[in-house]
Amino acid sequence: MSDHLLLPEAETNPAFGGQPDDRSLQELLESGFILVDKPAGPTSHQLAAWARDLLGLERLGHGGTLDPFATGVLPLMAGRCMKITNKILKHKKTYVAVFRFQNTPNLDELAKVMASLTGRIYNVPPEVSAVKVQVRTREVFKFDLLDFDEKDVITRITCEAGTYIRTMARDMGLLLNMKVSLKELRRESSGMFDLDQCVTMDDLADAVWLWKECGDESAMMRIVHPIEKLLVEIPRCQIKDSAVAALTFGAPLLRPGIVSLPKDVSKGSEMFVTSLKGEAVGFVKLKVDSNDVQTMDRGEVARPSMVLMGNEVYPRRW
Predict the structure, then answer these.
(1) Is residue 159 in a domain?
(2) Is the pTM of this model over 0.85?
(3) How confident is the model at residue 213 (pLDDT cuts 50, 70, 90)?
């Protein structure tokens, strides 16, 4: 999606705000995230609570529930970053799943069943899952056989957010006329993030100890990421410094404050807004089609639906 560039000459004042990668640790903990490799055992909520206590934060939650037995990529969201949890829950997920079959499956029959569970499928959460049971459909993009050992089959599944792998085990059993259970589950990726970018809880504890006991923030600075890294794939509208403060106070976004915005975004849609330094300001809901904005000289373009920046970062102009 290309952008309408409305004010190519616009500049930003270095005296206010700053590049996301230049933030202090305290600023990151007020609006940042940590990628944890969740171990088997605790619930996602328990893990987030442990991390919150370890870091001494008031607000920290998790983005994307993993059942207690499951492991892998789990984003922990700190401070204002928690506001965008519902947005990152929509990210595509990749899992390695180990299924235990009651009897050794015929591989040709198994391949047909796996193919039938690829694409748009009904996916009802099992009763043991961590969310309310309701009927819905989900997209399974890939369902690949990696290895097998008699009754154990190792697969890789790339799927839409909210897909229940236990349900796929149950459905395979129904189609093959035998019991199939989910033996192991590991989330390899969530959106653009994978296991290579994750830390263990031990890593986090060591980093916190170095920070709090030795005054060494270096490990923590590698572990805590700015909120903007969660939003890099979302089309954005850039606004002038003078419009940033107004938006953080809840004022409408007016045409003179816009530097650039995505093309072909319809009225009523939500749009991500950043400063000229790339800082996350918030989300707005368009009052007009984005393609009509370039013909406007003045007037209201959008209203804030979510504010992510504190209102003290940029000075008020009124």
Answers:
(1) yes
(2) yes
(3) very high
